[in-house]
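Standup notes
- HV: blocked on the assembly model, inputs below
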Amino acid sequence: MASGFQSGIITRGYKSGSIIYFEGDKSEYIYILKSGRVLLTYTKIDTGEEVKEEVRQGEFFGVKSALGKYPREETAQTIGETSVLVLTMADFERMILRNVNVVRKMLRVFSNQLRRLGKTVRTVLGESDNVNPDIELFRIGEHYFKSGDFNKATYAFKKYMEYYPNTDYSKLAMDRIKTISSGGAIPQPAKPSKPVPEDDLTDFSMDDDSEDVFSFDDKPAPKKDVKPEFSFDANPHDAGVSSELSSEMDNFLSDDNTVDDFGDFDFDSKPASKSEPTLKEKFEDGLSSFKMDNYKDAIEVFSEIIGDGMPEKQQDKKIFIDSYFHTGICYFNMKNYKEAMSRFAEIVKNYSDSDRMKESLLYIGEIFETAGQKDKAITYYNKVANASPKDSLNSKAFDKIRALQKS
Amino acid sequence: MLELDEKFFGRFGVEYTPNQIIFCEFEPGYEFYFIQKGRVKITKIINDREKTIDVLSAGDVFGEMSILEEEPRSASAIAIDKVRVLKFHRDNFDTLLQGNPQLAYKLLLIFSKRIYDAKRRLMILLLEEPSVKVMDVLIMLAEQNPQYDMEGEITLYTTAQQVASWAGMAEAEAQKELTHLTRVDKIDLYEDRIVVKNIRDFQRVIASRRKNLYS
């Protein structure tokens, strides 16, 4: 080992029983045992026990206290004729620069020591070491969530979802993320409707991994979003992700639908022309076919309503959305899931503040369940289960989740 | 500061905004960080409270435990100011070391210091009486600054809260002990500092207590 050293490093010889340094000495020298024997004696701080340790030839000693600039923690004494290399910190640094493997080894030893010390400190402080990191990580999120520090809470919950997607609290963690992201968001205004061109959705297949088709909502499965190479990245783009999340989720969670009510109050309403059935009459017509399980006719009527585009009046808007919704159910009952999906998706996408939102989500969940996409199904049931205000749909969704989790 | 900083920023540089989490306690971690700019606080949630255990600034390293060990983060790192760090994945560690041995040296220095600090803290915690613990915290703080003349009066820029944290006791308890030391004229207690009249006195007390601990 000594052969590669630069000149200027001192070799020092000791007689047997000599002290190279005492515990408590301050010194910046680092030693390498060249020949002979060196015994290090130190006191264990937690037990007061005296420990002796022999240095092997070629090994360093006195490194930590020199580098850390603190008193020697052990006494170094020779056994028999012994010769050591005496390095200054500068010598040591120069050596390190040429031998990274030695550093690696030292770092590993240091790192282990530090970890062990940390454990002892925690034990003395009465902090338990027997913890499940997943539960603890969730708890950190809860701490920040409850104290209103939402950015930190979101971070912790997202990490939880990322590392422990299928554990006890993953659903709750996801709900927390949604709740947070919906917090300050502005409800998305209902877009003027356009009939959905049929061929837009023709590529839907029950076997698809649906992500492309249901681009309106593929965020709730964070594990799919995360690219492994960036998996530990708390990068600045996170903010973007959460705002994306909110724009998709918040309307659904917002229970502020009161604006709709004002539209019902209409001073100027003129009686509709007698010659043509009103929108309401048309819809009733479709609904009666629907109730008689005459889905084909029902769909025809609803399609007409949809085809006329989004009406101006608030109450007519409801009819318009209901037409979408009932068309969806018609197709659902006809087991034409592709068409059904496209109708419910339309409501979720564009009319997320409508009364039909929760039911649509529930149907989407059922479609996924039918397609055997259990995770997706649960995701949608979850949305219903956690939506407010609570009603029988919430408990229905809960039951569905429970049934799926058992299966 | 390391010379590698500028050269590496393009590849490894990351910036954080104030109060942004860099990593979270109990999250698996495979990266370590060098602070280039700004301050980072290391915190833990203890009894449902966020406690700051350290504040780091430019030139400091954190997350270094992840280099060689498979354990979740033992604390959270949170940006205090606008923070600029170099972030290295452990898989790059060898390459990084080969190309930048001075980094290896710096890490050794950091580990050495941390080990000592941890041991020193443990020594304080192992003392039994609160009054003695507080004294030993003051000694430790004095030792940390080699410029101090241990024979004379020593001014430590610390607070009862920090002393309590080092001694692993409630702030009120530490405050009580410090008040007592003031009353018997061993120290002067100010809002932002503590003046120790004779640190050698304290050292003698602690040395004898420590001997008795093991006997």
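- HV (later): unblocked. The CA atoms of residues 35 and 85 of chain B lie 4 Å apart. The longest strand of chain B covers residues 49-56.
- Next: hand off to the docking folks.
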